[in-house]
Amino acid sequence: MELIDVVLVATLLLLAVVLLGALDLVLGTWRRRRHGGRRREAERDLLAVVVDALAGADHLDGARRAIREAEPAVAEQVCLAAGRIVGEEERALLAELAAAADVNQRARRELRSRHWWRRLRAVRLLHVASDDPADLQVLADPHPEVRAAALLWLSDRPRQLGERPVVLPPRRPSRDATELLADALVSDAALVRVAAKHVCVKADPPPLAVLERALELARRPETHPLAAVAPLTTIAALGGSVPLSFDDFLASDAAPVRAAAIRAVAATAPEQTALLARRHLADEQVVRIAVADVAGRDPAAGALLLALAEDPAWQVRQVARRTLVRSGPVGRALLRRLQQAVA
Questions:
Q1: Model's pTM, two decimal places?
Q2: Looking at domain 269-343, which of 3.30.390, 3.30.750, 1.10.287, 1.25.10 is its CATH number?
Q3: What residues form the membrane-spanning segments (predicted)?
Q4: DSSP state of 115
């Protein structure tokens, strides 16, 4: 065979391979789109059945049968979609339907996955389908997004804060939800701290043991310097009487910690606001902003609030003047007098 024949045959073979590859790609795309269309249609149909069942208990048997017969992926997606639209009253019925489709068991198997996004999806499914305190093990997951999702699970089930023990992976000691939630409040990950604060604010009664442990952790030298900010701002959001001491945080070297401590003291012991305002009137800007924000809670701090309304920093002046406006007729009159004097 001559060289030109060899080149021709090789070219034809290469062209055939390219054509077959392109055909396979086109057919694969078509099949995926067709399958995806059928799956979306199945999800819509099943979601309609589930919503009807949640609206009226007489459709519950039909929904249980339909979700049991559906493909696992379809059943899981419908549970996630329904979980975003149901209220507290319907959540128990949705959990019952999810249990009928073994959503819980498959999600718990996914919790052992090496991939954090699979564990995250499993937590979201358990948020819809599970009330088992054993599932609190995900509060100790190494990935912050998974831990934050687990905290949202806990926020809808505050009674689990008293459950013990929590089964953690091998070679790690069992810990209850209180300890894990306190760890989350002083976490390095902002997403985890925000979720933990949401749990604490939503819990009734307020989880004082969690806050006390979080502040204890924040006092440890190995903890990052701003660890106390999240538990202190949580206490400020809760308000009321909290039998905890914040004196060491008021004297912290970190200005954000001092500011958070001022807010916490003003929320729990407003009679001390005037004293705090005098002590921190010349502090750093973020601290003066906190003082200006809370000074209206104590009438004795009125003169100090006027001084802050003339602060060199624009942000401090604005916060102080808003506080004067919120203080009522007397505060607004003082603000008008100040504005006239400046003019």
A1: 0.73
A2: 1.25.10
A3: 6-30
A4: S
